[in-house]
Amino acid sequence: MLRQTSRDKTADLRRKIAQEAAYLLYFGLETEYKQAKVNAAGTLGAHVLPSNLEIALELDKVAQETEGPARTVRLTQMRIEALKIMQMLDTHSPLLIGSVWRGTIRRGSDIDVEVHHDCPEEIVKLLKKSDLKILGTEQITVTENGKPQESFHAHATSGKFEVEVVVRSSEEVSRKRVCDIFGDQIKGLTLRELTKLLREDPTKKFVPP
Q1: Cα dist from 36 to 25, 67, 89, 93, 183, whole Å
Q2: pLDDT tens for residues 19-35?
């Protein structure tokens, strides 16, 4: 019984730290999960750290409590806008990822769409022909499993929402990636899947149980 009580206390403390970290992230006092949880633990004088998933789930609650019903309306609007962008990029197998896919948007969230192409400039040309206004582009290199992975990012605005189109090489089409926040596979939504979702359940969430 004492062991169970100890586990309950630890679980309660992790939840409080996750909540504090979520507030730090939501209100812009921190931008990285790692630093947010470290600072939250320090504030509460604790030595245990919640997982990124625990913080992400609390962050989703904070966003809903703060933004209310308007958040759900905005999610549907962002998914509709994402559909238009993906239709324009249809020949490049676009995939909706990020918080608009997850259904965990908050103030400041953008629409993230991923495509695969060996010539990013061609994707930029397509975007310029649309109603999107290009704000800038950048090449990003990150290390995954000890290996450098490059991706091209085009930042734009639809007038209503910020948009980020990520261009990865055609060699990465079948590569499975794990989300460092939720800890699951980044599956995203294809154009066909998003079309069906908007018809059947436009505010559905995709987060681990």
Answers
A1: 7, 21, 36, 35, 18
A2: 999 999 999 999 999 99
